[in-house]
Amino acid sequence: MLKVALHERTISYEEIAEKVAPQVTGHTVRRRLAEKHLHKWIAKEREHLDEEIAEKRLEWALAHRDWTREMWRKRAIWGDEVTVERGGGKGKKWIFRYPKEKWHKDCIEPTAKVGERKVSQMMTGCFHGQKYGLFLPVFPDPNSAGGGVTARSIIHVYAQYDFLGIWKEMKEEIGEGEIFLIIDNARTQLPFMRWLRSNGVTLKEIPPYSPDLNPIEHIWSLMKAKLNKYYPELYLMKGPKDEIRKAIEEAVTFCWELLNPKVFDSLAESMVHRIEAIIEADGWYTKY
């Protein structure tokens, strides 16, 4: 039973019984496997990896294995974009109730209509050590054929708020040693990356499909949790889309500022463990 379950991980208890011991029930198979501490769990979701990508991830991790916590804290600036959707990522609401109150109106959490949930605001942010860095709204590109956000939209934000000046100040502060900006190297980001390089910003590219190598991804989860805690009214907020986007922008900026600076610092330092985890997994999936 154990061998079949580990060989065919999605197989059901009943199917194992049919293959190995037709005379027993699926319940018996479940009990026998539990005795061996083997249970069924919901599969964790991660970016799709293949042999080629796993190899690139492993090579990158090995190349940075000697970087210390202090190097990651001082030499890396982490940047990324996040889209905050009205009602998106809303956590489950736990309540006290008696069994018979399952459908009581005070025990129900209403959901937003599908069309209402699609109002969203994109934000771009970065951090360095214990410093927050930029966290600003990104708006649709007026020159885009589709009318959406493009790399030009992000360039506009970074130029308008003088990221290049901030970059120069950071370099002067660090003194010896080079600093790097680490951002998603997706194809849509290529014009933004070219603009950064043309203005003297040094980029360090991480392998594709590797959010576990950009700790700022964890910041987005923390920030959205605070958004759901402090601004539950956004979930069902009604009104013109521009007003809702503005409300999202203000709320999420406040939640960004609520984050403890030590969180940023510890996430930068976690790169040491993230890299070791990738090496141990031969470039495949990690817990991060």
Which properties best describe this structure?
four-stranded mixed β-sheet; alpha+beta; single chain; 288 residues; Nucleotidyltransferase, domain 5; 45% helix; 2 domains
Write the layout of secondary structure elements.
Elements lengths: L1 H6 L5 H8 L5 H10 L15 H13 L5 H7 E10 L28 H4 L2 E8 L7 E4 L12 H10 L2 H12 L5 E3 L7 H9 L17 H15 L10 H18 L2 H9 L1 H10 L8
Parallel strand pairs: 1-4
Antiparallel strand pairs: 1-2, 2-3
What's a quick, concise take on this entry?
45% of the residues lie in helices and 9% in strands.
Walk me through this protein's architecture:
By secondary structure, the protein is α+β, with helices and mostly antiparallel strands. The chain has 13 helices and 4 strands. The protein has helices spanning 2-7, 13-20, 26-35, 51-63, 69-75, 114-117, 151-160, 163-174, 190-198, 216-230, 241-258, 261-269, 271-280; strands spanning 76-85, 120-127, 135-138, 180-182. The protein has a 4-stranded mixed beta sheet with strand order 3-2-1-4, sandwiched between helices. α2 packs across α3 and α7 runs parallel beside α9 (190-198). The radius of gyration is 24 Å and the shape is globular. It starts with a helix and ends in an 8-residue tail after the last helix.
Cα end-to-end separation: 31 Å
- Care to count the β-strands? 4
Q: Give the ordered list of helices and strands.
A: HHHHHEHEEHHEHHHHH
CATH architecture of the largest domain: 2-Layer Sandwich
Structural class by helix and strand composition: alpha+beta
Number of helices: 13
- Adjacency order of strands in the biggest sheet: 3-2-1-4
What name does the CATH topology of the largest domain carry?
Nucleotidyltransferase, domain 5
Average pLDDT across residues?
Answer: 85
Give unreliable regions as ranges: none
Q: How many independent structural domains?
A: 2
Task: Give the CATH level 1 class of the largest domain.
Answer: Alpha Beta
Q: Helix amount, in percent?
A: 40-55%
> Roughly what fraction of the amino acids lie in strands?
5-15%
Provide the CATH superfamily of the largest domain. Answer: Ribonuclease H-like superfamily/Ribonuclease H
Rg on CA atoms, Å? 24 Å
